[in-house]
Amino acid sequence: MIQAPKQSNYIWLVLLFLGTVYVLNKNNKQPEYRSIQGMVFGTLYTITYQYDEDLQPEIEEAFEIFNQSLSPFYENSIISRINRNEEVATDTLFQNVFERSIEISEQTDGAFDITVAALANAWGFGFKKGEFPDSLTIDSLLQITGYTQIGLEEDRVVKKDPRVQISCSAIAKGYAVDVIGNLLSAKGITNYMVDIGGEIVARGNNPKSEHWRIGINRPVDDSLSINQELQIILQLTDVGLATSGNYRNFYYKDGKKYAHTIDPRTGYPVQHTLLSSTVMAEDCMTADALATAFMVIGMEEAKKFIARHLGIEACFIYSDENGELQTELTPDMEKYVVKR
């Protein structure tokens, strides 16, 4: 009569213990990683994140808001209305890109410049397709090119000449990566990678609990984006990364190759041996803009720029005197290399 209650109490305590362990394990279980893909800005995006909800609808909505502000292909976007000289108030997205663009234009002595739009259009690389320009046309367009010709007064863009056109294509995609990254961070997500057409922000760890592995494409002529051969693989986290190159967007005329990188100071596509520049920075917007600027100024000047600015690293791929591909990395970039 005495033993039965003790045995019953023992069983009850075991069940209580097991139940507590189950609840604790359930509460401590980490969310699975999710990976979503889609199209935006005419390119593919891939976003991998650790969270227990599908965020693609919210991300797609953020992209739409972004396009309404900064896409020159949206007729009623803010940037399109500014280019038509309509009276329009800018939003925070536009202002952030505009202000950072002016800062980087000043730092690079105009090698990066969002007023290059008219020249890019004339060469057939912009949001409007022009005819192959002659020298007189270039000279004329240079008169309305230059970051000092525009400004932001409160929430309005002011132009010195109404013919000035702006394009944020060399910085906006990087900023979009940051915007989505901030959206994920605001939800408490600490492990994610956002990739929009090769512009990337990585935070925390990947599903293998390692830093994220990111490949840099081998820069061979590839206008159809078929080639996926990698030149180098990096492993990193908590940075923004962007690549600019002349191996996809180009054309040939009279046997000469014309690539999409236009020097805003001369009005002509750049002609040098640098094939691609990949820039690492604290944020992707800065990396995106500097990757373009470095393609304009070339590798040697880019290395001098990096030596003067903390927090900027780069990987350059260029063609040597024998036409062979060579890779050069800034010293602090070397430590992220896991495969060549």
Tell me what the structure shows:
With 340 residues, the protein is of the alpha+beta class. It contains nine helices and 15 strands. The chain has helices at residues 3-28, 56-70, 78-83, 92-107, 117-122, 135-142, 172-186, 284-297, 299-308, and strands at 33-40, 43-50, 150-153, 156-159, 192-196, 199-203, 212-217, 230-236, 239-245, 250-253, 256-259, 274-281, 313-319, 325-329, 337-339. The protein has an eight-stranded antiparallel beta sheet with strand order 1-2-5-6-9-12-13-14. The protein has a three-stranded antiparallel beta sheet with strand order 7-8-15, with no helix packed on it. A two-stranded antiparallel ribbon has the order 3-4. A hairpin with a 2-residue loop joins strand 5 and strand 6. Helix 4 (92-107) packs parallel to helix 8 (284-297), helix 7 (172-186) runs antiparallel to helix 8 (284-297) and helix 8 crosses helix 9 (299-308). The longest helix is centred in the N-terminal third of the chain and has 26 residues, at 3-28. The chain is globular and about 95 Å long.
